[in-house]
Amino acid sequence: MKVPFLSLRDITAKYHDELRDAVCRTVDSGWYLQGDENSRFESHYAEYIGTKHCIGVANGLDALILILRAYMELGILQKGDEVIVPANTYIASILAITENNLTPVLVEPRFETLEIDDELIEAKITKRTKAIMLVHLYGRCAFTEKIGMLCKKYNLKLIEDNAQAHGCTFNGRRTGSIGDAAGHSFYPGKNLGALGDGGSVTTNDGDLAECIRALANYGSQQKYIFKYQGRNSRLDEIQAAVLDVKLRYLDEDNRLRQQVAAYYYDNINNPMLKLPNRLPDVNNVYHLFPVFCERRDGLQQYLKEHGVHTLIHYPVPPHKQECYKEWNSISLPITERIAKEELSLPISPVLTNEETEIVVEHINAFM
């Protein structure tokens, strides 16, 4: 029996009739950009996250780029300012910073949590530091009270990269509402995924929201009148309609992911594997389930031979990428260890009990 890493076909099939109706309604409306579907989803998603504003954009990278760009237009950030960011993030977090001629300051994670080490942040803060970009990687809440304290102490903006943590919470607040602004990705494989690319920004800052909405629409607040040198980054009506359907099932889908994760935590007992620390379910929506093994490549091949599909997130960390070759000589041992040992197991709201048991059976049998 083959166990897929993620079956988007099966996930889509769960909502087939409602998605079909939503898409047909949008097609029949004859209005395909910035219409009622987008307004409806923005309203519902803002309410779900717990913010006053949601702006639909083309993708998650654009969401982060636009947040930083808007802060620059509003005079809060300037070229060359520093943004603290976890070193082990997906490259989009860092691309958004350098795209705006800002300076990323890489901070190592804790191996046990996989999230930025809040004990290392303060030593990286300089007079040029203006923001922390917090990444809720793998679906795990990365926020800590210490990070909040540092933002207040040094008057730093807190920007959340919430691409992987839709529905995650911290002390009753959803990620995406904890900081000053948050970028969200609706890439199809996310916990809340579109049928194509999509993203959004959430914030309680009305001036920031207004600026982002204009920047994402060519810089225009009024047709053919351009306040900013903007870009074209808009969530289309079909994707908004799809997301509005799937949003209604997000909490239940996350609960199903948590059930799979619980089985993994309770039953994986191979001493060659290390698992990240186990968080309460409210703090982890398990976009991914990473495990760590010094013989990672051998484990992946063994699982493949037994029909279990896995992925690596991410085999080359940002500071070792050719596009940032000026950083290639930097040593970040924890980030590099994660990149060398990480393997993501199948996890999704459509993974069956039988498939979950098969994954564990083969992992425990690996020698």
Keywords:
about 375 residues; alpha/beta; 7-stranded mixed sheet; 3-stranded antiparallel sheet; 12 helices; globular
- Uncertain spans: none
User: How many individual β-strands?
Assistant: 14
Strand % is: 15-25%
- Estimate percent helicity: 25-40%
Radius of gyration: 21 Å
Structural class: alpha/beta
**Span from first to last CA?**
21 Å
Mean pLDDT: 98
- Overall geometry: globular
Walkthrough of the structure:
By secondary structure, the protein is an alpha/beta fold. It is built from twelve helices and 14 strands. The protein has helices spanning 8-14, 16-29, 36-49, 60-73, 91-99, 145-154, 206-215, 237-247, 250-267, 296-305, 333-341, 353-365, and strands at 53-57, 82-86, 103-107, 129-135, 157-161, 169-170, 173-174, 181-185, 199-203, 220-222, 225-226, 273-274, 289-293, 342-345. The strands form four sheets. A seven-stranded mixed sheet has the order 1-9-8-5-4-2-3, with helices on both faces. It has a three-stranded antiparallel sheet with strand order 12-13-14. Helix 2 (16-29) runs antiparallel to helix 8 and helix 9 packs parallel to helix 12 (353-365). The relative contact order is 0.17. The model has no long low-confidence stretch (mean pLDDT 98).
